Amino acid sequence: MTDIFAPRGLNKREGEPRIDGWVGGRADTWQGHYLDAAASRADANASEMMSNRDHAALIAQQLRETDAAIVREERAFDAGLSLHPLTPAIGMEVHGIDMADPTDAQAKVIWDLVLEHKVVFFRDQGHITQEQHMAFAKRFADIGLAYGRQQSLAANPTVDEHPEILKLYSDEARPFAAANWHSDVTWSNRPPLGSILLSRKSPEVGGDTMFADSYAHWHVLSPVLREFLEGRFATHGRAGRDEVEHPICRTHPETGRKALYINPTFTNAILGMEPADSARLLAQLYAKMYSTPEHCCRFRWQEGSVAMWDNRSCQHYAVADFWPHDRFMERVTLLDRNENNEVPFWIDVQGERHYGRILTSEEEISTPIGGSTRTIME
Ligand SMILES: O=C(O)CCC(=O)C(=O)O
Ligand SMILES: [Fe+2]
How far apart are CA 166 and CA 45, in angstroms? Predict the structure, then answer.
């Protein structure tokens, strides 16, 4: 009688080790069977997966990502949240949250969504107080002063009852918008990891914010250009005052993914290049980064809307088309709880982290820009 538990197919050959990862069990778990099953859910064929390890690894990665998305959606549903993507790659609107009183399960789902979609949005949070805004932020990270670093409050000349809240208020008499592509505070050696921006008053028309995917910015570069840029550093900030170096290819400390970490607002030059060559290459990179709508999403604000973003994986731009209307925004800035992760680094193939240098004193970098909350040092 046939033993139905005897290995079949590839496992039948005596004396050869099993190569399918199974150490026992049913005969129908032979390699071809489970590769076929994987191939049936992916754009792949099993024989190619068996003959080409790189191809199999790529399919495995795609399937892991698909499965993680299914699980995220299910966890969101269980936590009472519903998900409404703005685009496939960047921007997820999340309904069902009350920022005044989020559950632990909701906070966990939201953080996973921020990591995956780079920026998430909520609606109808106009009822929360400034204290609740800060308390919500503290679920995810330490919070910092307006420009990102925690420091003694007395040093801040704009102290009011909540110096941790950056107020970006614009009206007819005092127009302001952060209308330049950037991720926040890259002129500092420890740029904040993210922000939670709340609209207290929105213009009737205009005043959207755009977000762009920094992973995509890196991955669409040609292999030759990636090889040239990987491991290089660029200077950011005001030369002689608070200039720092950051890796151009930044490894995200939580996702491990690589992002293009330069921006036309704060980046000065690529180290190791002639100034004219660096300027030309930066201009070409910016032209490519900011002329690809496929890597962007655009958020239309209403009063009480919120954007929560990851500065390590995306950039943003506040569209300055709403004058003379009022637009009042309040931002709480997220700092990493792990000081090392807060400093941008690049991880090489050996797994070693490479950090940039501080070109001026830490003390100067830590000093908030004084005088007014109406500044472009976002
Ligand atoms: O006003 C906005 O939409 C964005 C402002 C900004 O750049 C920031 O809060 O970091
Ligand atoms: Fe900003």
Answer: 53
